Amino acid sequence: MNPSIAPITSNDADHGVAEIRSNLRRAERRALWMWGNAVIIILSLAALLVSFSVSLYLKGAKTIFGWDLSLAVRVLVGLVLVFTAHMIYQHFRLRTIQKELAEQQIEAEVFRRLAMYDPLTGLHNRRFAEQRLRAEIARSERRGLSMTVVLLDLNDFKKINDGYGHLVGDYVLKEFAKCLSHATRGSDLAVRWAGDEFMLLLLDCEVEQLAVVLKRLEGFTVVVHGKTLAVSFSLGWKAFEPGDSFEGLIEKADRDLYTHKAAAKSPKESLTVPV
Predict the structure, then answer these.
(1) What's the pLDDT at 221?
(2) For residue 154, what is the domain's CATH number?
(3) Residue 256 annotated in active site
């Protein structure tokens, strides 16, 4: 199973943003508590000094450290108030800076997700997949690792859109994305490649193991208006071989996909699956 790339639902689509805001609120409460304690301590010390000065005055002392006692008390209280006001000002200024930084972090998180994920299904998008696939090709070339690229295309998806509406079509895409995520491992990559076409990047996977993944995708259905709708798909694959390029892998898998798609439409032909 591959829970790490499960599609994002409406309930957790902004999980990263919500976490940033939650951390900001906790930091603000902690900072407010610290500043509040500091102000209380400063005012307490000031009160003690004033009490000490009043005690000296009642004992008949007229000066403290060579200053007139009443003037010294007024200066002391004034300094404490000025310092406290300055601390409060700096605290609110710091909070403003924290909020600005948090908003910038939120924007960066949103842009990161837009650059990496498909907003409808929550799967990784084609741009990210192309970068990842090129990197994995280089890694497999260096280390001699196995890797299989699979392209999948939903059959008669246009009929679903035309017959049930685009909202149902979107629902089918999201459910199929969930199915792909559950059928793969955490090290694999499930991608919305384009429209109703998806891609699986199966790492450390020989072609013979592809049947295990496909078995988990069998019998895909969705419930639409109380009716169970069976949705089939065609697929094409290409196992990595030393010397394969990104373009070569995708082109071969794409040709294989459309060969199988044509076979699926013909009652006389059947789809061959690696065993």
Answers:
(1) 92
(2) 3.30.70.270
(3) no
Q: Which of 118, 153, 188, 196 is catalytic?
A: 196
DSSP code per residue over 30-53: HHHHHHHHHHHHHHHHHHHHHHHH
Among candidate residues 93, 116, 139, the one where a domain is terminated: 116
Q: What is the pLDDT of residues 154-200, one digit of tens each?
A: 999 999 999 999 999 999 999 999 999 999 988 899 999 999 999 99
Range of the domain at 177: 126-265
- DSSP state for residue 274 in the 8-state scheme: -
Give the per-residue pLDDT at 266.
Answer: 58
pTM above 0.85, yes or no: no
Per-residue pLDDT, 83: 74
238 contacts: CB under 8 Å, gap ≥ 6: 148, 149, 244, 248, 249, 250, 252, 253, 256
Please state, in angstroms and rounded to a whole number, the distance separating the CA atoms of residues 182 and 188. 11
Angle, in degrees to the nearest 10, between helices 126-143 and 246-265:
110
For residue 73, what are its two tokens? Answer: 């008390």
Residues of the chain short of pLDDT 50, as ranges, are 1-13, 15, 267-275
Say if residues 59 and 69 touch (Cβ distance below 8 Å): no
Contact 192, 181 (CB under 8 A): no
